Amino acid sequence: MSLWRLASRSLTFYWRTNVGVLLTVVASTAILTGALVVGDSVRQSLRMMTEARLGVTQFALLSRDGFFRAQLADELTQELMTLAKNRKHRRPPCCKYED
């Protein structure tokens, strides 16, 4: 008996098992593909929502304990005003400002 004949007889004898395995593989592939597509869609939606909420953000403050000094706001205001005066004519091309 040749290898091809053995394989064909095995496929015909165990056809129910082989159909079950094939359907399981197809269903598993569909589930994994769907999960990947949905995951990418959710990730992109969250990214778009975050960018829409933040707008044109140039600076962010992070604190280790969640608190800032009261004088920090005044210091940052002075520093940012100095930077804004130096960069008056260097605005990002994506943003439209009214003077």
Description:
The chain is an all-alpha fold and 99 residues long. 68% of the residues lie in helices and 0% in strands. The chain is built from 3 helices and no strands. The termini are far apart.
Largest sheet: none
Please tally the helical runs, counting DSSP H or I stretches of 4 or more residues.
3
Described by the principal axes of the CA atoms, the overall outline is rod-shaped
Distance between the termini: 90 Å
* Mean pLDDT metric: 83
Broad structural category: mainly alpha
- The helix content is 55-70%
Strand content: under 5%
Low-confidence stretches: none
User: How many β strands by DSSP?
Assistant: 0
Blueprint (SSEs and pairs):
Blueprint: H1 3-13, H2 15-54, H3 71-86
Provide a brief overview of the structure:
The protein has helices at residues 3-13, 15-54, 71-86. It is an all-alpha fold and 99 residues long.
Provide the descriptors you would attach to this structure in a database record.
99 residues; mainly alpha; 3 helices; rod-shaped
